[in-house]
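So, read this over?
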Amino acid sequence: MRENLDERQAALEVSDTTHVIVDHAVTMCSVQTIRRKDFCFQIIMDTEKWLKSIETKHGYYIAGFTDGEGSFNVSVKKRTDYKNNWKLAASFNISQKDRVILALIKKILGCGRLRERKDGIVYFEVTNITSLQEKIIPFFKKFSFLSARKKQNFAIFKKIVKLMYNKEHLDPGGFKQVLKLRAKLNDDAGRNRKYTLEMFN
């Protein structure tokens, strides 16, 4: 009798936990269908499992390395084969001469690619919007930066990636919203942007 009560109590606790996680998944994804709920639930669970598998020392090492050598960027290119004739591309990258370190970072993050310039500088770069939303953003939300400037750029980048992940940038309003956020991204770098928000007003 006692065992049955314990089993029912355990089942209720599991059920309650599952409902909380599913509700969280539905809220985050703003979906209506059961299939979409299951998909979002699986993404969240996979991400949490992946983050837990990363050793804390490695996580904060990458965060510290990125704080000094990494950057978050959004480029705008004229492309007639794209909707509205413009292509937006978000990217996260780290540059360094030591290819071994970048290869390790790539392995831990589980996404991106390495490329090398003629001067010997190696780039680790992530441009895939799904990888940015489901890997890079969750990773740096858990393993945060120390510098205020990098925290600010990351906060802006998160908003941009979310808009692009939800394909809101394909509409004129969303496109301008990305450009507005982009204007604040790395605004202390003295960049002369070729395409600015004012051009689309």
About this structure: Residues 56-200 form a domain with the Endonuclease I-creI fold (CATH 3.10.28.10). Residues 1-34 have pLDDT under 50 and may be disordered.
